[in-house]
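Whiteboard transcription, Tuesday session. T.W. wrote the structure tokens on the left side:
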């Protein structure tokens, strides 16, 4: 089942409220901590508006969330109810992870490649669904005399091109 981005954004707004309450922050305190207006935060929490990128980053920083994970959640195609606050929280071990492929263990590399392949397979499946809806105009390639000569090279060179070379190699 497909969900609209608006439904997912509304869910993220609900998660802001849940996490804010868990952290013991009132709406005015979170707005102050993030350096944003109270109305902006209220609109976001109730799914009425989606904040600008800088405002979203300020809210995420105040809650300990990663804005990239919000973007990933919006593009994931998950049902809104499937997105949890844990999906958006900053990974506490992120700075401890290796920065280069050569620093990864075999198990970590295999895990990363498996994850990326799964993402690619999902993208390919989406493309296949889109392509299957389109009817191809021409399925076979045929020789067409109306196409200019350059597209169909001559089978034999003119002998005048070999006048200075001596014998015609094609005769």
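and on the right, the sequence the group agreed on:
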């Amino acid at each position: 089942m497909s969900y609209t981005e608006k439904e997912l954004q509304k869910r993220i707004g609900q998660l802001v409220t849940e996490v804010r309450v868990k952290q013991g922050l009132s709406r005015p305190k979170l707005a102050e901590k993030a350096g944003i207006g109270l109305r902006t935060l209220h609109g976001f929490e109730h799914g009425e508006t989606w904040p600008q990128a800088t405002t979203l980053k300020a809210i995420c920083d105040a809650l300990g969330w990663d804005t990239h994970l919000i973007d990933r959640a919006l593009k994931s195609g998950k049902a809104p109810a499937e997105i949890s606050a844990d999906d958006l929280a900053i990974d506490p071990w992120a700075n401890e992870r290796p920065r280069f492929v050569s620093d990864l263990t075999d198990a970590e590399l295999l895990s990363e490649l498996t994850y990326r392949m799964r993402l690619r397979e999902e993208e390919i499946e989406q493309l296949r669904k889109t392509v299957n809806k389109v009817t191809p105009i021409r399925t076979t390639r045929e020789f067409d005399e109306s196409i200019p000569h350059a597209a169909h090279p001559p089978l034999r060179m003119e002998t005048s091109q070999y006048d200075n070379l001596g014998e015609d190699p094609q005769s």
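Someone added at the bottom: DSSP finds seven helices and no strands in the chain.
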